[in-house]
Amino acid sequence: MAFHQLLEQAGGMGRFQSLQIAFHCISILMVYPHILLENFTAAVPDHRCWVHNLDNDTVSANGTGIHRQDILLRISIPLDSNLRPEKCRRFLHTQWQLLHLNGTFSNMSELDTEPCVDGWVYDRSSFSSTIVTKWDLVCESQSLKSMVQFSFMAGMLLGGIIYGHLSDRFGRRLIFKWCLLQFTIADICASFSPTLLVYCLLRFWAGLCISSILTNNVLLIIEWTMPRFQALGMTVTICFASVGQMLLGGLAFVIRDWHLLQLVLTAPLFVLFLASRWLAESARWLIITNKPEKGLKELRKAAHKNGIKNAGDSLTMEVLRSTMQEELEAAKIQPPVCDLFRTPNMRRRLCLLSFVRFAILVPFYGLILHLQYLGSNIFLFQALFGIVTLPANYVALLTLNHLGRRVTQMLFMFLLGIFILAITSVPPEMQTLRVALSTLGVGFSSASVMCSCTHGNELIPTVIRATATGIITIAGNIGAALAPLLMILTVYSPHLPWITYAVFSILACLLVFFLPETRNQPLPDSIQDVEKEKKGSREAKQEDITMRVTQF
To answer: Rounded to two decimals, what is the model's pTM?
Structure first.
């Protein structure tokens, strides 16, 4: 775990690290909004059945004054329980007798109706076009809308483990560039999809890559950063993800066509791909995977950009081997994936981290994927949720550095659960209070995610960090996919999904207690380091007890 000593000789936290972090932050800013894209590209506008008397251009052009739109609508579309036009049914025959009634026809439910066999008419005031209006994903086909989000989440699930393993084997930089290119091509092609099936397949492909892009951005920041600056690096990346949310809300407000919105968000990624040629590979990964010559070369480049003169004299192969002797010996044997579960401390640590990430992302996505729970202005809510995460992550950074990783996570997770429970007790009529509680809940959930990512990266050894992070990310993605499915529980009670979100958050709060503290501690580089930590902790505790007895 001596790599931080080599970083100190290469300039510590200098110009090189600042440029690298800036690139990764811009990458996160541009890529993260694609996770929430269906909030707008798959928005469901108000709709009703297409009616011949009302929507036929010829009839409308020749109509008289009596055939105003509201009158034709009254005799063509039945009313629902809220006295609004039905969205999925129409009268089988035009009900002219309804024109002569002053009030609501009491036996309207007895009139013959039929499904929207001729299609639908959509309200274009909010969106000129979405995938819902393009492929009529309403009424009997409304379940197909969830297939789009599911296909993307399924891609994230699979991509997390596949590309996580490939990142450990072939390097962070190579897999990052490959996934960025694939992601850009997939989402641009999705903008021109001729069918829903093709669109779902392309979004699956995009989801396959986005998990690796975000993970490798974080890993490259962590592995090039001094331990005391790692929490700051994580905070900055999540803040840029928050800015990405606000950017998405602003662009969606200006661009109401889903094709154009997706193109505008995706096309600039080609420029990012071309700029990635100047991205540095992780020197820590190169050294740990038994490539010390290449790792030393990257360290000297970093030292040169940091203004360290005569870096070739201070950073030599002899210095590198003496500093990281144990790590280089451990790197001669490449650990298989099963080694993650072979040793007791590593197995326990990975299981706890996976469940905590799962339990945190369930309420996080439960809040940000259900903007309609707050009201109709989803543009404002998207921007509002992005804004609140900025101060939330700053507060999280302060508490991480002052209270430690464990206490900070437990605090935010507990508050998240309390605020979600508070939302369920507020009636729908009190929209302002519900918005305020939901916004604070998003802030606490974002802070919890940031703390969980920081703590998790500091607990996993370098040699298997990408693979382990991929497994933890899969657990989190399962939680993300489960979040919208839990809304099915509203059939039994409208509060049940939100109570479930709160229970997950509070349970995660309790489990964090069993993870070790990592504040100002060097990163573990091998599985042996993880096991030594446990052994060292027991020995220190035993020595402390011996000293107390001796003093007594």
So the answer is: 0.76
pLDDT in tens, 161-185: 788 778 878 888 889 999 999 999 9
Alpha helices in 460-526 (DSSP H): 465-485, 496-512
Tell me how far CA of residue 231 lies from CA of 237, 262, 296, 401, 464, in angstroms: 10, 32, 25, 8, 20
Cβ(47)–Cβ(141) below 8 Å: no
Contact 465, 241 (CB under 8 A): no
- Is-contact 48 77, C-beta < 8 A? yes
Question: Whole-angstrom Cα distance, residue 253 to residue 247?
Answer: 10
DSSP H or E segment with residue 178: helix 172-190
**Residue 504 pLDDT class (50, 70, 90 cuts):** very high
Who's near 310: CB < 8 A, 6+ residues apart? Answer: none
Choose between 120 and 312: higher pLDDT.
Answer: 120
Bridge partners, residue 257, by sequence? 129
Percent of the chain with pLDDT over 70: 82
| DSSP code, position 521 | P
Please check whether residue 369 is in contact with residue 357, taking contact to mean a CB–CB distance below 8 angstroms. Answer: no
Strand, coil or helix: 529: helix
DSSP label of 513: T
Please tell me which residue, 450 or 95, carries the higher pLDDT value: 450
Q: How many residues does the chain have?
A: 552
Q: Are 382 and 501 in contact (CB under 8 A)?
A: no
**Of the candidates 24, 1, 4, the residue with the CA atom closest to the CA atom of residue 13:** 4
Task: Tell me the C-alpha distance between 386 and 239, whole Å.
Answer: 9
pLDDT for residue 57: 57
In 404-500, where do the E strands start and end?
none
> Distance (Å, rounded) from C-alpha 147 to C-alpha 153?
10
- ∠ CA(533), CA(538), CA(544), 5° rounding? 120
pLDDT value of position 540? 43
Q: Which DSSP symbol is given to 79?
A: B
- Vertex 421, ends 354 and 32: CA angle to 5°? 45
Q: Which residues pair with 129 in a beta bridge?
A: 257
Residue with tokens 């509070």: 506
Strands 113-115 and 120-122: unpaired
Q: Residue 406 belongs to what H/E stretch?
A: helix 405-424
- Secondary structure string (H, E, C) spanning 276-341: HHHCCCCHHHHHHCCCHHHHHHHHHHHHHHCCCCCHHHHCCHHHHHHHCHHHHHHHCCCCCHHHHC
Mean of pLDDT values over 126-133? 87
Q: How far apart are CA 296 and CA 293, in angstroms?
A: 5
What is the distance between the alpha carbons of residues 188 and 181, in angstroms, rounded to a whole number? 11
Across 468-491, average pLDDT: 79
pLDDT tens digit string along 412-447? 999 999 988 888 888 777 777 877 888 888 888 888
How many of the other CB atoms lie within 10 Å of CB of 360?
28
Six-digit token string for 134: 């393009």
In the 8-state DSSP scheme, what is residue 270?
A: H
> b/e for 194-216, b at 16 or more Cβ within 10 A?
eebeebbbbbbbbbbbbbbbbbb
